[in-house]
Amino acid sequence: MKVNLQSALNDANLDAAGVSTQRQLSISISATASESDRSVPLNLCLILDHSGSMGGRPLETVKQAAVSLVDRLKPSDRLSVIAFDHKAKVIVPNQQIEDPASIKRQIEKLRSAGGTAIDEGLKLGIEEMGKGKSEHISQAFLLTDGENEHGDNNRCLKLAKLAAEYNMTLNSLGFGDDWNQDILEKIADAAGGTLAYIQHPEKAIEEFGRLFTRLQSVGLTNAYLLFSLLPKVRLAELKPIAQVAPDTIELPVQQEGDRLIVRLGDLMKDVDRIILANLYIGQLPAGRQAIAQLQVRYDEPAIGEGLLSDPLAIEANFMTAYQPAPNTRVQQHILALAKYRQTQIAETKLQQGDRAGAATMLQTAAKTALQMGDRGAATVLQTSATRLQAGGELSESEKKKTRIVSKTILK
């Protein structure tokens, strides 16, 4: 397994007379498998809400979705299942898939009762995943339909960060319309996962299957992007790094010696992770000049930890007679990030009671989505803007759809 690392500036030409020039650097990262690479087994944990509000069809469809995943696991894979209401318990201890029928029977016994304490479920899930993480790809699916009424949201975020430190990925699934989109998104972002929205019970099997397919494509884990910036080159001070595909996430930057590092988490096989870095480049002599070097540090579960990709040098062309050379592909990535940030501003304005301002920003985000050809997002964003302009309120479903389309491109 190798790392495929590529980059491009939104305009590789710079004015040699410019004192400081802003550029967006797009970085594409994925895992590439060779014929000799063997498949790494999975270590999957399902953390399922079975509170009273999940009673009836919701819980039945979630159990069906969970059972369908058991059928897709291989004997070498591992599974654990946690159920939580206002407390949590282990339904299926971490084990290899030697007796799938017994695992399914344990899942089928789940009944709805009690309140909701997400942090209790997360704690037990991380403990069970930890028992099977050696030489496995460890991921959890956390599903809930409600607020963390009996739990502590700050504890949830601490547990999500702990999971990331132990090379475990958490994916959040919001079921119905009453879950807290902020906390579920933060859990997924902190632990390198993705946020999914299951609006109707019949979509549970489809969403579980989609996330499982994504999990199966993971080739490398615990990846970090390493930046070595040359003199006269710096990152922007405010929100310098973001991921724009497959989901949009603001990424924190840390200092490690003389390098800057950004945690990426899992790398999927032949599925590009697109990172956008906001750079300020100082004045340099005319001609091609190195401005940075990139490298990826990663783990390959079947081989070892702390492996390094080949370094990639980044150059810019400084011209005495500047001629722009815009990169349309990078411009698409810039638009994706703009769509996300414009929607975030709209949400903030709505929370502050500025309905007109929120509507204007949602309209702007809709236009951005159209520019990048994302018609599905444009429709959702414009519909929300129109409702606010007419004096209406956004339903919980509309708020969640708006958030989801801001982060990704609808398929």
Tally of DSSP β-strands: 19
Which stretches of 5+ consecutive residues score pLDDT under 50? none
Order of helices and strands: EEEEHEEHHEHEHEHEEEEEEEEEEHHHH
Question: What would the principal axes of the Cα set say about the shape?
Answer: globular
Ends: how far apart?
28 Å
Bin the helical content. 25-40%
The secondary structure category is alpha+beta
* Overall radius of gyration: 23 Å
The number of helical elements comes to 10
Give the integer mean of the pLDDT values: 94
The profile of the biggest β sheet is: 7 strands, mixed
Beta fraction: 25-35%
Overall description:
The protein has 411 residues and is an alpha+beta fold. Helix content is 35%, strand content 34%. It has 10 helices and 19 strands. It has helices at residues 57-72, 100-108, 118-130, 153-165, 181-190, 204-216, 328-351, 355-371, 375-389, 396-407, and strands at residues 2-9, 13-15, 20-32, 42-49, 78-84, 88-96, 137-144, 168-175, 195-198, 218-229, 233-235, 241-245, 249-250, 254-256, 259-268, 273-282, 287-300, 304-308, 312-319. Strands 2, 10, 14, 15, 17, 18 and 19 form a 7-stranded mixed β-sheet that branches. α1 (57-72) runs antiparallel to α2 (100-108), α8 (355-371) runs antiparallel to α9 (375-389) and α9 (375-389) packs antiparallel against α10. The longest helix has 24 residues, at 328-351. The two termini are 28 Å apart.
